[in-house]
Amino acid sequence: MLRTHTTKEASMLDGESVRVCGWVHDIRVLGRIAFLVLRDRYGFAQLTLIRSLLGKDKFKEYTKITRESVICATGKVQKTEQAKLGFEILPEIIEVLNPADAPLPLGVSDMVTADMETRIENRFLDLRKPEVMAVFKVRSALLQGIREVLVANGFLEVHTPKIVATATEGGTELFPLKYFEKDAYLNQSPQLYKQILMAAGFDRVFEIAPAFRAEEHNTTRHLNEFISIDAELSFANDEDAMSILEKSIVGGIKRVIDKESEALEQLNVKLSIPELPFRRVTYDEALNLVNKHISMEWGEDFSTEALKVLGEEIGGFYFITRWPLDIKPFYVLPDEDGYSFAFDLMYRDKELSSGAQRNHRYESLVEIMRSKGLNPENFNFYLRAFKYGMPPHAGWGLGLERLVMIVTGVKNIRECVIFPRDRTRLVP
Ligand code: AMO
Questions:
Q1: How confident is the model at residue 113 (pLDDT cuts 50, 70, 90)?
Q2: What Rg value do the Cα atoms of the chain yield, rounded?
């Protein structure tokens, strides 16, 4: 066995022999005694090196180990009030499994905050910082909590193709690629496939998978590859879809609070469980709120400034419902007088999710596609599913990284992805 205990497990012992492994976070030599701080995913352990116990040679060798080298230390754990962590390990042997070169391209233990570019270039080092890794602990728990709610509510987890022949969310944001002799694209959303699965009788499905958008703008809220959490449910309307969405978010947040309190502390975040149901505000109500501050016409989408107003006026999580049909995608169900059964989930001024009750009637769907300048011929594989028994259905797509931003409080969406893909970055 390479390692007997993690630092966290070792911290709970006293007087026992352990073998802990990890990275050299820091090393301080104070004459005849030295403190080597070992770090693993679970925390830190202080290795106290005493020259008189180790002998001159070992002491000299161990105190020369470079920062961020991978080591294993075998020794006795001892509870002590003198150590910051409340325990120390008195190592008999330290083995260097893999030495780190010096100097490091990015400091791990230093407080210096490097710029985002340098951090991403050296992401394997950047991620070693506990507060950087904490984002991914939160992300994992959040996702698990959401998945649990969906599964508990009868949703089947599915996977649909990411290499596709047509656009879903709009033609300009597609990444083209060659698929042997055909033209293909990276999928923007599983939208069409999750709807087809309603025709297949799957009743309730969800998918957690990458979605690709060739959006040119380089902002702190946009990625070119993100994780989309998609759900679709049959014999359901927009309200049913919103209800499962808000429950999923609360389930995710509950799990983060339950399982990742330490990560939240590292991120300096006090998280509370939002109250259900989230507020529903119609598009028209939101428009009135916006018009108290800045002018906006009916039928326009909310600008950044308009969303700021809504964030201030409403706050927290809320839905904007009953959107004008014209500014929503072809697949949403029309209501009377130019309205639709589409909704967006917001957190303050940030859009987290869009969804709708869908248009499940073939003729009307084809007509709306044409009115939006789309050629129904290109959607044949999708439209066929509406001709032979398509139930009424509804669903939503939730951007995982947008939600992680809100839960962790980080300001740049790139912080929520291990290896982000943005307008300029394709490596690492
Ligand atoms: P929409 O295009 O609004 O809807 O996307 C759904 C959610 O995905 C997230 N998102 C993004 N996150 C990061 N970077 C991006 N470039 C990006 N684009 C979108 C957002 C957004 O709210 N098919 C519909 C969903 C549905 O109706 O079921 C769709 O894709 O959080």
A1: confident
A2: 27
Give the start-to-end residue ranges of the domains of the chain. 7-98, 126-416
Q: Which residue has a Cα nearest atom 30 of ligand 1?
A: 189
Beta carbon of 342 within 6 Å of any ligand 1 atom: no
Nearest CA owner, ligand 1 atom 10: 399
pLDDT band at 187 (very low <50, low <70, confident <90, very high): very high
The first and second tokens of residue 81, run together, are: 């009030």
Q: What are residue 67's phi and psi, to 5 degrees? A: -55, 145
Determine whether the shortest distance from the Cβ of 255 to ligand 1 is under 6 A: no
Q: Whose CA is nearest to atom 21 of ligand 1?
A: 353
Does the C-beta of 213 come closer than 6 Å to ligand 1? yes
Cα-Cα-Cα-Cα dihedral sign, residues 62, 65, 71, 77: positive
Place of tokens 């969405």: 245
CA distance 215 to 173: 5
For residue 292, how far is its CA from the centre of ligand 1 (angstroms)?
Answer: 28
Long-range CB contacts (within 8 A, 24+) of 54-63:
54/91, 54/92, 58/94, 59/32, 59/34, 62/34, 62/36, 62/91, 62/94, 63/27, 63/29, 63/34, 63/36
CA–centroid distance, 228 to ligand 1, in Å, is: 7
- Is there a contact between 49 and 91 (Cβ–Cβ < 8 Å)? yes
Measure 353 CA to ligand 1 centroid, in angstroms.
Answer: 6
The predicted model gives 315-329 an average pLDDT of: 97
Pocket probe mutation, ligand 1, options 228, 248, 351, max atoms within 8 Å of Cβ: 228
Domain 7-98 = CATH 2.60.40.290: no
CATH fold of 126-416 reads BirA Bifunctional Protein; domain 2 (3.30.930)
pLDDT in tens, 242-292: 999 999 999 999 999 999 999 999 999 999 999 999 999 999 999 999 999
For ligand 1, the distance from its centroid to the CA atom of residue 351, given in whole angstroms, is 9
**Residue-wise pLDDT tens digits, 354-368:** 999 999 999 999 999
CA atoms 135, 136, 139, 144: torsion sign: negative
Q: pTM higher than 0.85, yes or no?
A: yes
Mean pLDDT of 380-405: 98
* Segment (H or E) for 284: helix 283-291
Q: Which residue(s) pair with 230 in the sheet?
A: 207, 397
